[in-house]
Amino acid sequence: MKVIVADDEYFARKALVMMMEKMELPIEICGECEDGEEVVDLLKTYSADLIITDIRMPGLDGLKLAEYVKEHELDTDMIIETGYADFNYARTALRYGVKEYLMKPLNEGEVRDSICKVIQERQKKCRDDSLRLLDFGYVLENTRLRDQVLGWGQEQEQGSYCMVLVNGRERIKDESMLRKWLGRYGNFEKIYSFFFEMKNEWIMLAFGQKQIDLEKCFGKIATLELKKSYTQKMWISFSDWHQGAKELEHAYRECIYAMNERILKKKQIFCYRHQEFRDIITLEQEQQLQDAVERGSEQDARKVIQEVISEAQKDGGNIYSFYTALMRVFFVLNRFFYKKNESREKKSSSGEYLLFDFKMDLYQFYDLEGVEKYVDMLLKEACQKNTEKENDSMIENLIDYLERHYSEDISLGELAERKYFVSISYLSRLFKEYTGQNFMKYLIRLRMEKARKFLECSQMEISDIAACTGYNDPSHFTQTFRKVYGVSPKEYRKKNHSQ
Predict the structure, then answer these.
(1) Mean predicted lDDT score pLDDT of the chain
(2) What pTM was estimated for this model as a whole?
């Protein structure tokens, strides 16, 4: 952590610098200044993590310096020292975001504690900035990263926990109220929370007694309080009870399965439970859908889809059954795609893999209307015959898909065949017309933008950043980054942190 010391008294300044150098903390004194103006001049060419300044100096004093830092939104913390017991000054300093207010003569223990507090807060901010860019699913797959991000230790390994997933159309900022709400109705012993911006989700690990019936605890009264506390639309899902890090991925999957119930049910709180499968689409309906698509009749095809949706909503709705029916609809479109492109060697089969996964892709929809729009988009494309009409909604959906899956190994050909059921040349042309660049260039640029943010906001290893952005080979990642930005990832990080 780079530190600037400012004090117009030479010996007081030198004494503080010597005191700090003996502390053996991860800090570097990068500037010694006589007044605030010298600090401002230094900040114009050099970045600092912390400024320790006297409150009263000639010219630009400590408070004016704190005001400058706040107004220019510098990522720099401040500790103010003074020989005056002036509480008005203290209040002003706190208003400008000053972290600590120390009285002279300085006590080494107090100085050390203040610096350690800033270090801890900046480390937490660095971790939180990293979390914003990471996908929680990826974190769970990487044992070292998982333990580092979640702070997983022996205490957590031995306790029983349920995972809580909070998701909304907008970011839920007041996480402290959520923690209080969970503690009040769940009587949990300890709650850890993490925000992942990529999917706009709060992940909470609530440790407590296994015998607690979550569905009973978070019933009507808890729901009413949640609606009073939060005006914005949000949904919360609970996994079953688990123990140990090896069950974290399973708990996350249960949370997503439970959250997907919002597609069919007008509720806010969902607890994971096993659901019996019910077949809601018949072979006759499947054939009717295929006939309608082959005739190019959107109206008849949509009628079949609506019948399936109506059946899915009966008996309170069953998301597993709905998902299975949805897959069969997609298989019909998939078969039709291959029928239109008979020159392809690869033929469709009922077991063909599709790029629509229950675990994650239903999760991107907040309600049934969103699912219907997606299916309708595919139906329109399938029923169009020999048309050159652009389909902006398809490309917008594809761009959104890349934002969520850029770390995966997916080609435009796979997306065309298995997600949008069109030819690769057609999708490629639409994509270039919409974005102004071809698919691969767009994907590389997107991955490099994400990598750049990781380098700026986190202390992750270069190899981990490479893996997070879709590169299994760190050297290939480094070459690509250098080609885009003119420097290596390591050089970029060093240059960015020194500015």
Answers:
(1) 85
(2) 0.69
